[in-house]
Write a structure and sequence with these properties.
- The protein is an alpha/beta fold and 379 residues long.
- The protein has helices at 9-17, 45-54, 70-77, 89-99, 109-122, 124-134, 137-146, 149-163, 168-180, 211-229, 271-279, 286-293, 312-322, 326-349, 372-378; strands at residues 60-63, 81-86, 192-193, 201-202, 239-243, 258-261, 356-358, 363-365, 368-370.
- The longest helix is centred in the C-terminal third of the chain and has 24 residues, at 326-349.
């Protein structure tokens, strides 16, 4: 029977919040955090600090909007069990790969996959046949717009080589490496720029890099990193990243000991605009991704708004924004309502007497400083 560590979350929280929480100058490439670009990640030192001070060994830590799995990785490193949910398919893929990494599984990975992809590429008929048969019309139009024909062949050769890998954990890492050569800030193998920040735009003068060469280089970097770190996931604790919606968590009441999350802001980044660039190569259609995108908290849509009763601070902010832009005000109302649903779920699944930390800042909408953190605190 596990003995729970007695923690006074209120006094401990006051102490933590009175300290220096600016970690943006600190290194954040340890424990696999730099394996894949992900916009607006919170620094790993932040969840690490709160988890270490507000939980005990074997406690269950939840991030209901886990993004790239930063909190889950830090929780496992501290000997805590971790649960994570996200509605974004690429976020779940990244979190899976980062929390199941084992340096022992990576031997010969680079040589086998790269060599096999070169062999497949040389068989032009197979590659062309797969490109023609795997994508529906809309997805094919998207791929043709953003990827040059030669790049398409290189990427398909890589996909086919990765699919031959039998180990699920290794295949996840290879797929993550594959995705990382597409979703990048400025380089990458598509015709897009600024994918890492969720603002893709096509630059016709850009010369995309060879996909297999980029994959080889990135995988070598990853293998070198793991060789130095010798990282092996702890066996006595586990991380469970899952597809799920923070507004309807599939957990029992009081199932978790601590919550730490960085929810989307009021003017949320449109993650799917960038993430679909790699997801279409991993089996998702543009139509299915567009449908999923409409369900995100912070999505810019006003239809089907199930508005909660909001505190005065939120209503006043919405009213001020409405004077400048009525549509944006409806979007903000939806955001506050959906975050209210998520916060209600956090309260439900959190064990009595334990703490939840939401890392969120202000947003600017039509020039209005939306004090998101104060409004969410009131909610």
């Amino acid at each position: 029977m596990t003995t729970r560590v007695k923690i006074n979350p209120k006094s401990q929280m006051r102490k933590l919040l009175s300290g220096d929480l600016d970690f943006h100058d600190g290194a954040s490439n340890h424990r696999g955090h730099s394996l894949h670009a992900f916009a607006a990640k919170f620094p790993p030192q932040l969840p690490h600090l709160f988890i270490s001070q507000l939980t005990g060994p074997s406690d269950v830590v939840l991030d209901p909007m886990m993004g790239s799995g930063t909190a889950l990785v830090e929780a496992v490193a501290l000997g805590r069990n971790a649960l994570g949910f996200d509605i974004d398919p690429l976020a779940v893929r990244i979190s899976h790969a980062k929390t199941t990494l084992n340096s022992r599984d990576l031997e010969n990975a680079e040589q086998d996959v790269v060599a096999r992809s070169q062999q497949i590429l040389e068989d032009g008929d197979t590659v062309e046949s797969e490109i023609q048969s795997r994508f529906d019309g809309d997805t094919r139009k998207f791929i043709d717009y953003w990827f040059l024909p030669e790049t398409q062949r290189e990427l398909m050769a890589l996909v086919l080589a990765i699919e031959e890998v039998s180990s699920t954990d290794l295949r996840r890492l290879l797929e993550l490496t594959f995705s990382s050569i597409i979703v990048t800030k400025s380089g990458g193998v598509s015709r897009a720029m600024d994918l890492a920040h969720g603002r893709p735009h096509r630059v016709d003068s850009k010369t995309p890099r060879n996909a297999i060469t980029q994959f080889d280089r990135k995988l070598r970097q990853n293998l070198s990193y793991f060789a130095k770190q010798g990282f092996v996931s702890p066996v006595d604790v586990k991380a469970q990243p899952m597809m799920g919606d923070a507004r309807a968590l599939p957990l029992a009441d009081g199932a978790v000991d601590f919550i730490v999350t960085s929810p989307p802001y009021a003017n949320a980044i449109d993650y799917m605009r960038a993430h679909k660039f790699s997801l279409v190569w991993l089996g998702r259609s543009t139509r299915s991704l567009t449908k999923k995108r409409s369900k995100y908290i912070g999505a810019e849509r006003v239809a089907d708004v199930d508005s909660l009763e909001l505190p005065e601070s939120s209503e006043n902010t919405i009213s001020s924004l409405s004077e400048m832009d009525a549509t944006k005000a409806k979007i903000l109302r939806r955001y506050f309502s959906e975050m209210g649903q998520a916060i209600s779920e956090m309260f439900r699944v959190l064990r009595s007497g334990r703490a939840a930390v939401l890392v969120v800042g202000t947003s600017t909408m039509r020039g209005l400083d939306v004090q998101t953190h104060r409004c969410l605190a009131d909610i």
